## 1
Amino acid sequence: MEAVNDFPFWLRAQHLLNFVLIGMLIRSGIEILSSLPRLWWRQDCAPGTEWLKFTKRELPKEEGVYTSLMDEKAVHPLLSLPGRENIGLGRHWHGLSVMLWVLNGVIYVILLFATGLWRRIIPTSWDVFPEAWDSLKTYLSFDVPDISHFQPYDALQMLGYTFVIFILAPFMMLTGVAMAPAVRGRFPRFVKMLGGHQGARSLHFIGMIMMAGFIVMHVSLVFLVHRDRNLVNMVFGGAQIEVSNARAAQAMVIMVAVIVAVAVFWIALSYWSLADRVRAQRFTAGFTEIGRKIFLNWLRPQGAKKTAYTDDDISEFHWTNGLPPTEEESELWVQARERNWAGLTITVRDDINDVEKQLTIDDLKALPRHSYIATHTCMQGWSATSRWTGVRLTDLMSVLGPRPEGARYLLAESYGLAQKMYDNRPREPFYAAIDLDTMEEEESIMAYERNGHEIEDYLGAPARLRVESNHGYKHVKWVSRVMWVHDYADYGDGRGGTREDSALQAFNGRI
């Protein structure tokens, strides 16, 4: 018989919750990665420059012939959350899990210091390093350190816990938020310090591998090193609990049952999401919007103050998501392209009062000109840096006069169609709505030039929306109409845009 160190209920409960949330994070992370199963260090994601890929598909070298949606891979719901090419829901589940994981971690650290249990995890002597080295050599020899080395953890465990809790976890948070357009627009030097969007994405993946490796090692050692003691501690806690064969067997049954129950819960989340994807989108996007309102919505791009990016940062290659309209999709756009856009107009409309004006591309270019360098990011993961030139949306809409009473959103429509609809109905004209605060940002423009020349057809010629604080699904290409609206719920499926309708993304594209 042996008395063991105290493991209070809050500590055991938070470990269990952390296990559940880490699993959700990794599974939803797999879904996100499967939407573009390649990793780069280069910001332009040029074909053939990946440092790691999870697909055998070879990318064409020519720009504008291969979309990122074509590269998406379907993953089984047993492995990912939710699986089956549902990047929108995968991103929502990832965001929800992050919020709960961070909250759980903050509470854990507070209680750790409030109860004095931090001394069991954080080393207070340099002796921990030679002791950890001795433990590592013991493990590598397939032996087990004596029980006397565990108080309740040995030196190697202490260093591992300290690294994961106070270094790896914050690293994952920082690299995660660095991929948010709102953060990049407000703190461009921070993102550039991490290697830009692709650096942050690759580092985040490496961190995930390290976290997963730690978990596998941690759980394995629970069952391989002084198993009876570990299981009794983790299940029953309490300094007065005695380790006996019967108690250890009881703890083993409970532990295995809990692990099985958590795995069933992970898989059930996937199938619950797939059973009614709109319901899952409402729940997850509604929950994660709380985090966006608290941490992101107040972040505004630096605009003219931004000096982090220069012409030297402009990308050599630019991906696309969506191909130019065909004659079947928009005969008007195709014919105008053949005439170098002569006769093509963009409608500027007040949909509240039924007032509108038609602007040609020359009319657009006659308005005040605005230019800046920005990194475009797709919610699937690719990026490219360009100099965009056009007219600010505030100047564009001023051609109708003062903002009409009751206008709450700006909605842009495209000559092009959605690539696909999640429910397989006929493809619909692409559109996106943004709130007025976003519309008024300095880097929200109707662009007609990229890198000093007219925008390429595949990137949205002759004019496209640029909303740099949001991901690319808000940047409508081949714009046909821009209008004041009272409520985006009156358009499309009422979710605020085609990618919200067709891929169940969030209306708020700031992360």
## 2
Amino acid sequence: MRTPPPGTPLPPLAGGAHGSDALRPLLGTVLDALHDGAAERGGPLPAGGPDRVAEHLRTAAEPVLPDTGTGPGEALRTLVHALALGAADPAHPHCAAHLHTPPLALAVAADLAASVLNQSMDSWDQAPAASALEALVTRALADEVYPAPGAPDAVLTTGGTESNQLALLLARERHGPTVQVVCGDHTHHSVHRAAWLLGLPRPVTVPTPTGTLDPAALDAVLTALRGPLLVTATAGTTDTGRIDPLSALADLCDTHGAALHVDASYGGPLLLSPTHRPLLDGIHRAHSVTLDLHKLGWQPVAAGVLAVPRTGDLAPLAHTADYLNADDDTEAGLPDLLGRSLRTTRRADVLKIAVTLKALGRTGIAALVDRVLDAAQLLADLVEDRPGLELYERPTLTTVLFRPTGAPDRTVAAARRTLLTEGTAVLGRARADDRLWFKATLLNPHATPGDLDTLLRLVEGSTRR
């Protein structure tokens, strides 16, 4: 065994009885660097554009692999500060472009514990307690989607893209490789990509001029098709946040003998809100449902979920590797974890979710959901009160589309890039009614009415320039 040169201490480990002692001073360094970097940045995005950001980062990071290291304190201080200074900060109220949530502090703290423990969720002997916790949490989340008595189940994923891919995989294994995916124009791109990856026929796309799947249009398409069918509906589109008429679509699927998958990556947490849960009526009739708690669940990435109405629906994921889930170990009672994911090594992402659910409870999470949906309605009001701005529609979830009245698309695109380059606001872009719109996706429950008003003032200033 090669030993370090004399006088060179071994770097301490994070785990074990003494790991916390080694972490404390390092965490102080990290927290200071995060604070200083964010304070120096001052806004939701670093000013100057890609070239300036890359140059600042290069100065801090190089040499990436020096002959002699700088030591942990200097490396952490330099690189964490540089990354915080050059970060897009979803906790800033003017960072509202994407479904990019500001994570809750308690979830981040739990995620630190998951990193320290470094459980690998592919065999029980690598994650004894975490595997038991994951079983409890996934069943509880599945019960929210499928509340009728039964045995629903769920698996954790890296997000909506992986969940959608798993849903199509399960449909392929259940119905065969010719299963035809039917979706709307508004469907998330991951569905088309999953069909390609899985060797399925190219999805049949139903036009959605009103922004949601029209039951009559879907009925006509399903009537003309033959063979096994999988309809993919959306509960919260990326561009507008609209929700398909899930009950009507489920009726059609029953009529035509089609399976139904609902991509509720965005809107799924409405299930926990008594006020807004009716928007998801009919979701329990789906054969699979995608949720994504690093959106309206305020989790650090990754925190995706795929729920199914019966544990047996996950059987196609079963897989055996003798060193991880030998038959005699499974027969002796050791839980088989390989069938819980297509991945082998997985971190214990369940811990942050479990801590959040337990700390806030149903009412606490519902309050956050309701608050950001209310903020979207307020932003829509503020847009409608300004004659120089035009609102696309009243928001369904937390996405608000607006644009300068009468402006050409190039003005919207250029103004958005100006805000990004200045580092003053991060807004998305969406095309609707053949026009380009600013897209504000409000996920920050701490955003105030004044923050929203200032955001619109920044937009007005950039479009005038």
